[in-house]
Design brief:
Layout lengths: L7 H23 L13 E7 L6 H16 L4 E6 L10 H7 L4 E4 L24 H10 L2 H11 L4 E8 L6 E3 L13 E3 L4 H8 L2 E3 L3 H9 L5 E2 L4 H7 L1 H4 L2 E4 L8 E7 H5 L3 H35 L4 E4 L2 H21 L1 H24 L3 H17 L6
């Protein structure tokens, strides 16, 4: 075939067609059809790291969040989550995200305690009786979010932070033998983090802050006499029942903790507004989903720790719990005098707790009464030794 030079008429027709096509494309963009940003050749990829070992349920929670975002953006934004230590140590996450070494991360605010001790108020201590979900209510609606932004700005952290995922009250810890009195802590080599370091020190322990993956090896080598981490599932997966058969339940050292999702602020600010909205809403969806999954998995592992691994759980004595409150009062007084931002955040949290905790206590029926009514007799009968005929 021989090529033909387009006639002026056909050329004019082509120009009209191209002009019309560009108008359709503009209309398509206005209707919300996906557009490729200038210079963008594919999906936006973000490299994250968690502060958790790959086998820990906490790392699973981080992967759950990433999947929600990846699915909701239809693959236009892809978050890859690496386990602790893949790029930086667990306690180095904030610096790595702030500097852009990582695009984001999953951890807890108390791991940044050394940067600014007021960060521990999002996780350490009795939180004036708030539970994890109520503390998140303070964060979103009671002024906590604005105070956290102010705090991060004060230390030059180039991050966008999303606290989420309420934790249950954490155990007092794992020990060689049951804790029966305050003097049991004297000279004990113990692991914890955040303001809890000060609290356990006040109880008499010699405290060492270690990331999750290092705790059980330290206990196995005799470098620790006791330690706390978080919950039945994490503690089981990390190997606590291999080095201890005694776990004390109930404590005020971390009464209301939650996770934190962080993004490098420069990277986050460059994202399309639609993706920012998905990220924010996915945080709240993941928060609810995480708390439901935790109830299911923690309760299963709580049973199996006892039935399959011979762990004995004991309630922390009230005398120890009361002393924790007394010690925490002195810590808050001291740190408030030293750090105006600590004082401001603590007072905001306390004001919110005064009404929220009272409402909670006055509103909810006693779950222990309901449990005992339905299950206590059957549980006692099951536990009783069989009578010989």
């Amino acid at each position: 075939m021989t090529s033909k030079t387009p006639s002026p008429a056909s050329a004019g027709t082509r120009r009209k067609f191209l002009k019309a096509s560009s108008g359709v494309a503009a209309a398509g963009a206005a209707l919300g059809f996906p557009m490729i940003a200038k210079g963008q050749t594919g999906p936006i990829s973000l490299r994250w790291q968690s502060t958790w070992p790959a086998k820990d349920i906490f790392h699973e929670f981080a992967l759950d969040y990433a999947k929600k975002v990846n699915d909701m953006t239809g693959g236009d934004l892809k978050i890859e989550v690496l386990p602790a230590g893949a790029v930086v140590p667990a306690f180095g996450l904030l610096d790595a995200v702030s500097k852009g070494t990582l695009d984001g991360g999953h951890g807890v605010l108390v791991y940044h305690y050394g940067k600014q001790n007021a960060l521990a108020l999002w996780g350490s201590g009795p939180a004036y009786g708030l539970d994890g979900n109520m503390l998140l209510a303070w964060h979103k609606y009671g002024g906590g979010r604005e105070l956290l932004n102010k705090l991060y700005a004060s230390i030059g952290a180039n991050v966008v932070s999303f606290p989420y995922g309420p934790h249950p009250t954490q155990p007092l810890g794992w020990f060689k033998k049951p804790i029966t009195k305050l003097s049991d802590f004297k000279g004990m080599k113990f692991r914890t983090v955040g303001i809890s370091i000060d609290m356990y020190t006040g109880l008499g322990a010699a405290v060492n802050a270690l990331p999750g993956g290092e705790i059980v090896p330290a206990m196995d080598r005799g470098l620790l006499d006791g330690a706390e981490f978080n919950n039945a599932s994490s503690d089981r997966l990390l190997g606590f029942p291999d080095v201890s058969k005694v776990c004390m339940l109930q404590s005020f050292h971390q009464n209301a903790e939650q996770f934190e999702i962080t993004f490098n602020k420069t990277k986050y600010d460059a994202l399309p507004e639609k993706m920012k909205a998905i990220i924010s809403n996915a945080v709240e969806a993941a928060s609810a989903d995480m708390s439901w999954k935790a109830i299911d998995r923690y309760s299963q592992d709580y049973i199996e720790l006892q039935t399959k691994q011979g762990v004995k759980f004991y309630k922390t004595p009230d005398a120890v719990l009361r002393e924790q409150l007394t010690v925490m009062d002195s810590i808050i007084t001291k740190k408030s005098a030293e750090n105006p931002l600590f004082k401001e955040i603590n007072e905001s949290q306390k004001k919110f707790a005064e009404r929220a905790v009272k409402w909670d206590l006055d509103t909810y029926a006693n779950r222990r009464m309901a449990y005992d009514y339905y299950f206590a007799k059957a549980a006692a009968a099951k536990a009783a030794p069989a009578k010989k005929g």
